[in-house]
Amino acid sequence: MEPFWVDLQVNGYGGIDFNSAGLTVERVKAVTRRLAQDGTARYLPTFVTGDPDLVKANLRIVAEARRVDDECRERILGVHLEGPFISPEPGAVGTHPVEWVRPPDLSLFKGFVDAADGAVRLVTVAAEVAGMPEFVKALAGRGVAVSLGHQLAATPAEIEPCIAAGAKAFTHLGNGIPNLIPRHDNIIMTALAEERASVMFIPDGHHLPDAMLKVYHRAVALDRLIAVSDAQYPAGLPAGEYEVCGAHARLEPDGLLWNPARKCLVGATTPMARMMRLLEERIGFTPRELQAVGRDNPLRLIGEPC
Q1: Dihedral (C-alpha) 26, 31, 37, 42: value to the nearest 10 degrees?
Q2: DSSP conformation class of 268
Q3: Domain 5-234+266-301 in CATH 3.20.20.140
């Protein structure tokens, strides 16, 4: 069966980490083949907050893989920068290494773009950070899709200028935020009501409860919903202890990957094909809706034909 799904957030897979110092062109090829075997047709390697020199080095490796390998060129649509332009605050920063979080910096961003051979397609930033609307406008003007995420308590007054400047989505809505938020004026309610931006979400059975997925399904227009895996490199590996984003993480037998010290999730280990089955079986998504959230909408967000 041909792979079908499109995933805009893949940090690693099958023991290979896009954010580690051991990345090679051959490993990029291996991840790409493994994802295709597991049903993901096309994807964005995702680079989280980290040492800029390491991020640039790995961006160059992905760019080289796309240059020399036909399958990588076909299946890798570009890259997603999830940071470093996010909030450094606990609860918002998640498992990202706080020492590498940076304020908006066009020079640093241009360095990432050059390393990626121009293929930065999606960038996650925090709306509440000073100077973010101007930064969003600059990125959107370069044809980059900007998504809002990893923010502590971004208010509608902070989100609105970023949407007006060109932000087009919310990254893994319901995650990358504090456990306790205001009951009314909060990022989840604001994003659900914001008709100009898409809602990316992780339907792996761990990140969001079924009740919240049902609310997303009912409250958000179908063309605004985008499922992502947020897969980390332990995906497909046995339960056990791992190091993810420079910190200790535990992979439970049921697939839950979490950081015991920070008591937060550390990405996911469920492939897109399995997530689509969960949406169908537990939430009631139809085949047409699954195609929209798992293929057409992610392609549309980054300007690819469906």
Answers
A1: -110
A2: B
A3: yes
Take residue 246 and report the two structure tokens written for it. Answer: 């420079």
Instruction: Tell me if residue 89 falls in helix, strand or coil.
Output: coil
Q: Are 222 and 194 in contact (CB under 8 A)?
A: no
Would you call 172 helix, strand, or coil by DSSP? Answer: coil
- Which residues are registered as beta bridge partners of 251? 240, 257
| Three-class DSSP category at 234 | coil
The two counts, helices (H) then strands (E), for the chain are 11, 14
Prediction pTM value: 0.96
Pick from 238, 214, 217, 215: nearest CA to 226: 217
CA distance 280 to 285: 5
Ordered per-residue pLDDT tens for the chain, 306 residues:
578 999 999 999 999 999 999 999 999 999 999 999 999 999 999 999 999 999 999 999 999 999 999 999 999 999 999 999 999 998 889 889 999 999 999 999 999 999 999 999 999 999 999 999 999 999 999 999 999 999 987 888 999 999 999 999 999 999 988 888 888 889 999 999 999 999 999 999 999 999 999 999 999 999 999 999 999 999 999 999 999 988 899 999 999 999 998 888 999 999 999 999 999 999 999 999 999 999 999 999 999 998
Quickly tell me which residue has 């990626």 as its tokens: 116
Q: How far is the C-alpha of 114 from the C-alpha of 142, rounded, in Å?
A: 13
Distance CA 164, CA 187 (A): 16
Number of Cβ atoms within 10 Å of the Cβ of 130: 10
Show me where the domains of the chain are located: 5-234+266-301
Q: Could you tell me the maximum CA-CA distance found in the chain, to the nearest angstrom?
A: 51
